[in-house]
Amino acid sequence: MSDTVHISDIAHIGDIVQMSDRRQVSDTVHMSDIAHIGDIVQMSDRRQVSDTVHMSDIAHIGDIVQMSDRRQVSDTVHISDIAHIGDTVHMSERRQMSDTVHINDIAHIGDIVQMSDRRQVSDTVHMSDIAQMSDIVQMNDRRQLIDTVHMSDIAHIGDTVQ
């Protein structure tokens, strides 16, 4: 799938969207507004997504968003505003995210955000304003963070960030 792929507004209430198995999506992929209430969105299994991926506003109340298993996401990934109240966002397992990653405003009240398992995130890391009242912030498991990652305003009241 080359050039421009618009996957906007794919999934609605109760839908399951799977993008799986040896897919190469090049150039620009807009995945904004994919998942809504109760949706499960899985991006899994040997995927290479190159150039610019905008994943803003994917997950809303009650959604589960999984980005897992041997993924290489290069250039610019905007994951701003993914998780809201009650959401679970897993970014796990052998991921290499290079250049600039903006993870601003991911977690809000009651959210669980896990960034785990052998991750390499390169460029600048700004971790200001991560933890506030009652927050638990854990960044663990063989992580190398170099150069630019903006993780400001991740955790708020009652959040658990792993």
From TrEMBL:
Name this protein carries in UniProt: WGS project CAEQ00000000 data, annotated contig 220
Domain of life: Eukaryota
Gene3D superfamilies: Hexapeptide repeat proteins
